[in-house]
Amino acid sequence: MLALVAALTLIATGEVRQLGWIALLVVAALPAFLAPEHRLFAPLGRFAEVAITGLAAGSIAAAAEAHGTLDAGFGAEVVLPYLTVPLLTAALRRRPTEGAALLGVAAVALVVGGTLIGDVSPITQPGFLAAGGQWLVLGAIITFAADTMRQLMQPSEPTPQPYAEATRLLTQLRSVARSLPGATLDPGGISEHLLEELRLITPADRSAVLSASGGGRLVVLAQTGAERVDWETTLDADSAIADAWATQQPMTANRSQARSGRKGDTSSLVVPLVAGVRTIGLVILETDVANAYPSSVVSEVTWVTDPAALRLEAALLFDDVRSLATNEERQRLAREIHDGVAQELVMVGYGIDNAQATLPEGADETAEELRSLRAEVTRVITELRLSLFELRSEVDRNGGLAAAIAEYARTLGTSAGLRVHFTFDESTARLPAATEAELLRIAQEAITNARKHAGASNLWVTCTVDPPYAEIEVSDDGRGFADDRPDGRYGLTIMAERAERIRGRLKITPRHPSGTTVAVVLGSPARRDSVRDSVSAPEGE
To answer: What pTM did the predictor assign?
Structure first.
């Protein structure tokens, strides 16, 4: 645009000195060109451009009339097109207020340039008025209609396909997960690291990181302290925990946030972990000293927890995505087995039955072989049905882990003629959903091994859950685990991998006088003076 108006100015006026206005425009345009994002210099440069353009219009109109090229003030048309440059820049940056101010400055500059320059003021000439009015109107259209025109001219984006969008997001998530420090998206690990960081800032005799779970309750992701604390996990109780969750502000209290409470001086600090506008968890710090958390300490703690909230949210989301994908795959496998090989085996069984019914008399040997084959098919169908039950088994967020394990053990025990003995000690607090799912799968594998390979008559299942601690123990009175058992070591490898995934410990020991005990332990042992009573099912249930 500068080159165009420079050429037109030289043609219309024939005076090289009139190119001085173009030189001033070059200087005025430099700030917006070199620093377009600067909050002060870029707007000032645009204001200088419209002011110089208005003044130059009067001077060039007078020079063009003196040269005899354009009379009646129409010479202003030579330079006024440059008004579109600063006005369009402001419009594209969505600054309508600045655009309106630029129009005002341009109008004032046109009046000043048309009044003070030349023997005959161009402002009195109809051509000057027409040119100035025309470009001011065009400038107003550019300023106030550019955004609307851009939206109208922009092609509408197609509605993204759900699976294509999911693929794109999961691909990005995989790339980001691989680039994270330590390549970990484990909520428990991130929570423990956060508590370690906070321990360097302020002392705490007890601390924990809690996150949301189903049913309006909280689950313990990590916990430290000399004693176990039965933290308040309901969000409708009268506590600093509920207040911090609702207000998204740190809360201090002079009492413990445990349901059982504590005697003596106690200071509590509850800091919400907020990602965006959503509360995803809480950090609880407690110490047996009065007024231990002044505002200065609260500020230091929130300085650490604010960035940690984003990391924890990413880990929780990744955990949810992984759980959903795992459950969907299990359901898909169950459907394929049920609709495929299971139905075909049933048809094979019907075929054997028909063959038995049509055997001629005296074919006793063939009949016996068919009966053996039919029994084997029936056994395989039973195994498939139990496998389908295992694939479809999940932890109900209302029923709990113990109920899911009990249902599975009862079903398999009935199919195998096992007497199953249950002992449950389950807190009302819950473990994270992903952790409960892994514990259920470990228990299922241990129960299945006892049913299929141990030759046992009795099965003892013990489930102790006191978040973040949990212990699942499965014992049988079979022949014990030997290297020559047909399942080999594959089932143990699967259980060990699952235990490692939730940072638990798998223990396999012989049971006296016979049998095997498989136990998975998560966290440190619970206190035995718990206010809860163990619930044991009647023997043989």
So the answer is: 0.49
Instruction: List the one residue out of 55, 206, 209 whose CA is nearest residue 132.
Output: 55
What confidence tens digit (pLDDT) does each residue in 206-221 have?
Answer: 888 888 876 567 888 8
Strand 458-466 to 419-426 pairing = parallel
pLDDT given for residue 154 in this prediction: 61
Ramachandran angles phi, psi of 274, nearest 5°: -110, 125
Q: What sign for the dihedral angle of Cα 27, 33, 35, 40?
A: positive
- The rounded percent of the chain whose pLDDT value lies above 90 is 7
CA-to-CA dists, residue 13 to 9, 74, 224, angstroms: 6, 12, 85
Burial (CB count within 10 angstroms: exposed 0-12, middle 13-18, buried 19+), residue 236: exposed
Closest to 392 (Cα-Cα) out of 474, 450, 328: 328
Whole-angstrom distance, CA of residue 277 vs CA of residue 43: 34
Concatenated DSSP letters of 217-279: BEEEEEEEESS---B--BSSSSSHHHHHHHH-S-EEESS--BSS---S--EEEEEEEEETTEE
Mean of pLDDT values over 291-303: 89
Tokens 């206005």: give the residue: 21
Segment 334-342 mean pLDDT: 77
